[in-house]
Each structure stands twice: as structure tokens, then as C-alpha cells.
């Protein structure tokens, strides 16, 4: 009979599969150890059939059944070829034969495992790509890190944002006594109350105390012993519709006792911030801001009302605005006429301590760098919010329109001396700012249509610096 030699790999694979399947179906104690081919030697009493059918012994293992009964010799020599037997016609065994075959199967698997040659070990080295005969150097990924010095670290911070010495509004952590001792700008007494019946907010400016004396512009000495203070009131973010008290002459403890009303809905008033700015009047220069107090109205009971003493804090705006002027421009190409309407002004700089100002507007037409025509409005007594509604017409041919400039200057009328300069703007070829240029451009693009716009007044020096037409007028 010819002998067939099985491959070691197939023999080991089949032995493990048979062990795993047959042992799980026949022995309940060797489930954990069957894969290692070291099952326990159980007797017939401990054998339990777990499946619906008795386990079957493979034909190729039946040949070693008789040799296992004689002895338990372990073969360690060379691999012995196995002789497969022909299949028996009766493959089904009884329960006792199954138990014996299971025990024999376990011993046979152990013998086969000991005789099975070990699997070859394959040394797989990583594949390397490169130039032949090149010098090999180990390459490790490097992490790019920047070393920060203390100077680099602190250079990212802006100390002025965290310092209380700066003129910022962040004084929430200081009491009024600490603010007063820190800045020494004085205190302001005021009250607020909302009238639900008439839907308006009433602000009462009562008095101020301990205001600092005025300082000269160079900061070297004090020009006067006393200030001429007044208070400007507005509801932020709207700074245009502001109110202003009268000027109190030569005092550091002014008593105002003035009331002002703002027509505003109750819900809108709760979203506003009351800003009170104390200003020092100066007839010969721009007025200087002494200090300010800001109160978010959402933090107070507006209906019940109340009054407070608040310490003044420095303001980032050292000088007050000069006021605003509402103008309307219209050009008629067929007639060659440039029409100008001076409608009104508001919050003009006060030029008289006792009675406010007597403002008027001078309009001057400049062609190129030559003064052509001068006109002016009437003056209104004792007001800083004048209404003029006066119209003026200048003859300007269409071919000369692009070289024309209009200079608007607001003065305070003075009977005893020269008029007091308040502010100026230039509109046209040599405009004094972006707002003025935009108004002139809109007028050129819409002939025969009046174009209105508000303008903030500028100082004489600012206009002379940016507009040559301002240098040609007085």
C-alpha cells in the first residue's frame, strides 16, 4: 500500500481544527486548553455529549488508535509518514466507543504537535529607496519650535489697555472717593426722572464743586484763578441732539439749577447712556473739557427718579466740538446759477459768557484761488441753535463749476470788537474734508435737485492746512 506524506502546514492546521471542533462537542473540561493540545485525561463518567450527534473521528486518525492503547511513547525523531486507511462502511460508533476515540484523539493530537516542524521565520526588513552607494543617514522628523524670550512674550501686550492711569472709561472698580482722589477733577450733582404720562426724560443739572482751576495750553502755569464752567448733556449714542447749560463765570463751585427734557420712549431711554460733560469756557480759544460723568440709564429707576453726586473722570475729548451746519446746494445748468440754502445750525460754540452767541454765516465764492463774491446771513441773538432758512444765488457758468469753491464761516456777532470766529468748512474744488467732497459730488450728479447735508465745523487752522481756498478768505 502506498504511503502518502502530508504537508506539515496542512497537518498542523487540520489537527487544530479537529481539536477545536471535536473537543468542544465531547469534553466540557478541555474547552480552555484544547487549543494548546493539553486536554485533561477524563474518564468515561466525565464525558458528556454536548451536541445532537456524537462526534466522528476522522479516518486519517483511526490508524494510530491501536498504537495509543499500547503505550504513550513520544516520537521526537524525523517525521514519520502516515498511512491513510480506507473508509469503514460503518462509521457510526456507540457512546462508549466515542468516549475512547475522544481520549485517543487528544493523545494523538499531542503527538502530532510534537512532531510537526516549526513554521519558518521570515525576517522582513523595511524597504528603503535611495541612490546606490549613497551615504545613509538616519532621518528623524523634527518639530519646528520657536523659542520665546520674555521680551517677545510681553511685547504682544499693550500696557495702556490694562492701566488705570490712562484716560479710559473703565473706572467700574473705583469708588467715587477713589476717583476724586486719583483725578481731582471735582464732583457733579444731578438728577433724572422719566414722565410716563408725557413720554419724556427730565435731566436736572444742580451744581458742581471742587472743579480744578484752568491750565494754560503749555501746561507751565495757570492763566486764571477761576474757571467759567458749563455742562453739556446728551444721551449716547446720539451726541448731536445735546443740551447745554449757561456759563457760570469765575467759580469752581457753580450752581446751575437747570432742567432739560428729552422726548424719547421709555424702552428706548433704558438703552441710552446719560453723558454729562463739564466744559471750561474760553473766549480766546477752543473750550477745554474738565471732566465727564456717564450713567447707563438701565441701571437706575427712571420712573421713581433720583439724584446723585458723581466724581468727574478724564475725557478722551479734550476740546468740545464747534457745532454743525445744515446746508442745501442746487445747480441750474441752463441758467448757470449755483443756489445755496443756509437752513440752520446747532450746538455752536458759545462765544459770549452772559448771553450765549449771536451767530451768523458768511458765504464766499472762490474761483480757483481768487475770491469772487461774498454774502452773509443775518445774526440771531442769544442762541447756539439758530434757524436761518436763507437762500443765496451765485452766477457760475457750467464750464467754471469744476474750479469753484464755497467757503462757509460761522461767526459770533460782536458790537464792541471784531466778530468771534466759531468754525468753517469748504465745499467744492478744494474741499476741507470727505464729507464736504461727498456733498459737492452729489450736487454735480443731480442737477436741478436740492441736496441737503449736515457738516461739522472745523477750526481755521485745520481748513487752512487742507484747503487753499480757505487761505484766500478772511
Automatic annotation (TrEMBL):
Disordered: annotated span? 60-111
Q: Which GO terms of the cellular component aspect does the record hold?
A: exocytic vesicle; plasma membrane
Composition bias type Low complexity, residue spans: 95-111
Q: Which family does it belong to?
A: Belongs to the synaptotagmin family.
Keyword entries, A-Z: Differentiation, Membrane, Repeat
Domain C2 per the UniProt entry, residue ranges = 184-310, 321-455
* Name under which the protein is recorded: Synaptotagmin-17
Question: Which Pfam family is one of those matched by this entry?
Answer: C2
Source species, domain of life: Eukaryota
The record, for CDD domains, names: C2A_Synaptotagmin-15-17 (cd08390), C2B_Synaptotagmin-17 (cd08410)
**Membrane topology annotation:** Peripheral membrane protein
Cite the PROSITE patterns for this sequence: C2 (PS50004)
Segments spanning the bilayer are none
- SMART domains the UniProt entry points to: C2 (SM00239)
Which molecular-function annotations from GO does this UniProt entry contain? Answer: calcium ion binding; calcium-dependent phospholipid binding; clathrin binding; phosphatidylserine binding; SNARE binding
- Per UniProt, what is the name of the gene that codes for the protein in this document? LOC111156106
What function does the entry list?
A: Plays a role in dendrite formation by melanocytes.
Q: Per the record's keyword annotation, is Membrane included, yes or no? A: yes
Q: Where in the cell is it found?
A: Membrane
